[in-house]
Design goal:
Layout lengths: L6 H4 L47 E10 L1 H9 L25 E11 L7 E11 L7 E7 L19 H16 L4 E4 L20 H19 L3 E10 L1 H16 L5 E7 L8 H4 L14 H17 L13 H10 L7 H4 L11 H14 L8 H13 L13 E6 L7 H13 L4 E6 L6 H18 L33
Parallel strand pairs: 4-5, 4-6, 6-7, 7-8, 8-9
Antiparallel strand pairs: 1-2, 2-3, 3-5
């Protein structure tokens, strides 16, 4: 059925971003919800009870916010001052052309499946943005994947918790311009964030294709159930940083998990699409990745702990960590979001190596970074288990998926995905013979590439899904990724193959 939600309900309890002007009422939108939506926003994160069999089924739906066009655009254009304690790098706000639409925003919970050996049923929370002035009578299904935020409940982007403020601007500048240009968008938190810590609900895994890829593809199914009559049978996957890895992983997974979906286009900003064996190889050179200044130790901790909890079972997230550090690592995963510093983790050691069992460090660092096998490991089964996981989380994109149009955006001043790492991403595209296009901005940073290219992305999506005009070539492609002498930047030689 079509259910129009009264504005008085949407704006209940003084929700931030609500407007009382009639032009922003859900009744003004031509995209009508087709499921009931009357839960309270905070109830979306609670235990959903027995799960239905259907993937993508809507379990809970809550009216959350209403943005006028001006309000939505103002939030997107607001940058982050260098001096702000919550700013990443003084990132500028969206700088593209004016928005054409406001939006009604909903919090939803939908059924998905986890990436454990039993394919356990699960659920993911998400934000859904419905434009009040759609770009077309029917739009593609746009699924937006967030970057690294931390794995704790409060880090979920849909909660907009102050604890996640350090990277919330990146999420806003990825998603809001798409909505402001008239697309309906679902932005999954991924399974594990809602009802965090409940029995049978392990944390979201950092970088596990089998886990986050399913949440992403089921997000497409969920949006179709919400407003199916307003949507085309075309899916667009988009993601920033770790979200780029999520989007590309979902593309690789689609044929086996959601074959009825048609992936029409993929757009990724500074994707972390590199060999996951690096999680072990980095342990060979701990002094290069100090705990106090490098994000690498945090990523390694998130990756190892969350994979252990999901795949090996409850309580096994700490198995590869030194016994004296296990409680501290668990507290870090349960409580810390991506931030400028992590005093609790910093107090436990100078590098990721000091968090881990020494035998594991010795075995996996050599296997991941040097030999590519566990023949010399003291604990070969444990070593092989993790080496297999690293490889599974950087799948090759093959067959029909390799032909899907891919737009990859990158900035030459990126200090997170440095140019030598970006070169590895482009090398992998070439090796898999993907149908890709690189949009390179020499002055762009990890965050500002979103600010300066979001309207181009919106037009490129329209060209691939709506018959819109092609936005044309970018000023530069990957050939402009050169060093000071003008030579092409090579892939980081420390990253292992696969």
């Amino acid at each position: 059925m079509n259910l129009r939600i009264p504005l008085s309900i949407v704006c209940a309890s003084g929700l931030v971003g609500c407007s009382t002007s009639s032009s922003n009422s859900p009744s003004a939108t031509s995209y009508a919800l087709e499921v009931p939506c009357s839960d309270l926003p905070d109830n979306v994160y609670k235990d959903p009870g027995a799960l239905p069999a259907e993937k993508g089924a809507i379990l809970k739906c809550a009216p959350y916010k209403v943005f006028s066009k001006a309000e939505l655009e103002a939030v997107a254009r607001s940058g982050e001052a260098e001096s702000s304690p919550d700013a990443g790098n003084g990132t500028p706000g969206y700088s593209g052309r004016p928005f054409t639409s406001g939006a009604t925003v909903y919090r939803v919970l939908y059924r998905t499946e986890r990436g454990d050996p039993n394919n356990t049923p699960g659920y993911s929370s998400a934000l859904v943005f419905i434009p009040d002035t759609p770009r077309a009578a029917q739009s593609p299904i746009v699924v937006a994947s967030h970057g690294s935020r931390g794995q704790a409940a409060k880090c979920a982007p849909s909660k907009d918790d102050p604890a996640g403020a350090y990277v919330q601007g990146d999420f806003v500048r990825q998603v809001y311009p798409l909505v402001g240009m008239g697309y309906a968008v679902i932005a999954p938190d991924l399974a594990g964030y809602a009802n965090y810590g409940a029995t049978g609900n392990p944390p979201s895994t950092y970088g596990s294709v089998a886990d986050v890829g399913k949440s992403t593809l089921d997000g497409a199914r969920a949006l179709k159930k919400l407003i199916g009559k307003s949507l085309l049978d075309k899916v667009v996957l988009t993601g920033h940083s770790q979200g780029g890895d999520t989007a590309l992983g979902a593309l690789a997974l689609q044929s086996s998990y959601a074959s009825e979906l048609t992936i029409a286009a993929v757009t990724v900003y500074s994707p972390l699409w590199i060999s996951l064996r690096a999680n072990g190889a980095f342990l060979l050179v701990p002094d290069s990745y100090p705990m106090t200044t490098s994000p690498i130790p945090k990523v390694i901790a998130w990756y190892l702990y969350t994979h252990g909890e999901l795949i090996d079972g409850p309580g096994h997230g700490v198995d590869v960590f030194a016994q004296a550090k296990q409680l501290g690592v668990k507290n870090f995963v349960d409580n810390d979001c991506w931030a400028a510093s992590y005093p609790d983790l910093n107090a436990m050691g100078n590098s990721a190596n000091e968090l881990l069992d020494p035998g594991f460090v010795s075995d996996i660092s050599v296997a991941a970074g040097v030999t590519g096998n566990c023949s010399g490991a003291t604990d070969q089964p444990r070593c092989q288990k993790w080496l297999d996981r690293f490889r599974a989380d950087w799948p090759h994109i093959t067959n029909a998926a390799a032909q899907v149009p891919l737009l990859s955006l990158y900035g030459g001043k990126d200090t997170t995905m440095t140019p030598d790492l970006a070169a590895c991403v482009f090398d992998r595209y070439k090796a898999d013979q993907l149908n890709y296009k690189v949009c390179f901005d020499p002055a762009g940073s990890h965050g500002s590439i979103l600010s300066v290219r979001a309207d181009y992305v919106a037009d490129w999506i329209a060209a691939k899904t709506l018959g819109g005009a092609d936005p044309g070539a970018c000023p530069n492609d990957e050939k402009a990724l050169t060093d000071d002498a003008g030579a092409p930047v090579p892939c980081n030689k420390l990253l292992p193959p696969d």
